[in-house]
Structures are given as C-alpha cells and as structure tokens.
Amino acid sequence: MKESLIENLIQMRMVIVVSGVGILLLGLIGFLFSRKFSFKTKRLKFFACLYGLTTSQIMALSVSILKVLFVVSMFFTLVDIKAVHMAYFGILVLLSCILRRDLKGIVFGIINGAVMMGILQVAGLLHGYLMDVYFDPKIAIILIVLMIFLGLYVVTDTYATLNLCIEDKIRWSRKADK
Question: 80 or 18: which carries more pLDDT confidence?
Fold first, then answer.
C-alpha cells in the first residue's frame, strides 16, 4: 500500500510542481494587483466580483484553478496519462460540480472532463509519434491546434465557474434586498 502511494505521487510529480508554482504566481499577481488598490481603477471591478463569495464558491473557484493548473502541467509535460491522473481529474470535476451546487450539470461536467482527458491522451499520442516515429509538420500543426483548443476549453470552464459564482452572489443579494 505504501509503495503504491509513493508510486502514484511520483507519477503526479509534475502536476504537483506546476500546481505549486502556479499557485505561487497567482498569489504574487494578486499581491501586486492589490498593493496599489484604489477605488478609481478598473481593478475594482475584478475585486468586486470576488468580494462576498461564500466558502463553497471560493472552493469551487479554487478547484477550477486546480483543473487549469492540471491541464497546463499535462500540456507542457505531455506525459502518458495514467489512472492516477484520470482519478485526480475526475475528483476535481466532481468536486467542482458539487461545490458549485450544480447537480444538474454533473453529467455535463463529467462529459467535459472526459473530453479534456481525451484531448490530453490524443496529444500525448501525437507527441510520442512526432518524437519517436516520424516528425511530420502537419501532425505538429494538429498538435498545436489541439492544445490551443484545450487551453480555450479549460479557460472557458473556469470562466463558467466564476460566472456561476457571481450569478449566485447577485441572486442572494437581490433576495436579501427584498
């Protein structure tokens, strides 16, 4: 049991490193943006979106950011996707749906997660083919387009989570005003 846990952690090492670096970078960017905070800047709109979020909304946004960092780490390393990667991403997808309280969207979230994992699997296969068998510029272009699509897909998913959190906040503030 102990050996399999260590083996799984070794397989997830790049995800752990990229997630740690990504979280540090996001923290640094947040610190720099909030350092010269003023009510006259456009930054106020961004901070207003995040102000007053509930714990579950903050957790949903955090899980969504972890999904982005996972996809980025898999994107740059292009390692073979193992069962531990699929399990981790599946847990992130389910947590995101549960924390957003979007129980109707669980099926859609699982389908989105499966599409993202499928794209990562195909990208890994294409990368392996390009490196080991034959470098074809057409396949390299397909790989680049696939990765651009995946990047847009994961950013759209994160934006949808943020949008859902903001809509919930607006709905609750309107109910409180009545």
Answer: 18
**Mean pLDDT, rounded, for 124-136:** 86
Closest CA to 161 of 37, 30, 71, 66: 66
At position 119, the amino acid (one-letter code) is I
**pLDDT > 90 fraction of the chain, expressed in percent and rounded:** 2
Total of domains in the chain: 1
CA separation for the pair 149, 155 (Å, rounded): 10
3-class DSSP assignment, residue 122: helix
DSSP state of 41: S
Report how far apart, in Å, the C-alpha atoms of 47 and of each of 5, 24, 36 are. Answer: 39, 19, 13
pLDDT digits (tens, 9 = 90+) for 61-84: 888 888 888 888 887 777 777 778
| Domain range for 79 | 2-177
DSSP sequence for 139-173: HHHHHHHHHHHHHHHHHHHHHHHHHHHHHHHHHHH
User: Which ranges constitute the DSSP H helices of the chain?
Assistant: 2-11, 13-35, 43-50, 55-77, 83-99, 106-132, 137-177
CA-to-CA dists, residue 4 to 30, 84, 119, angstroms: 37, 11, 27
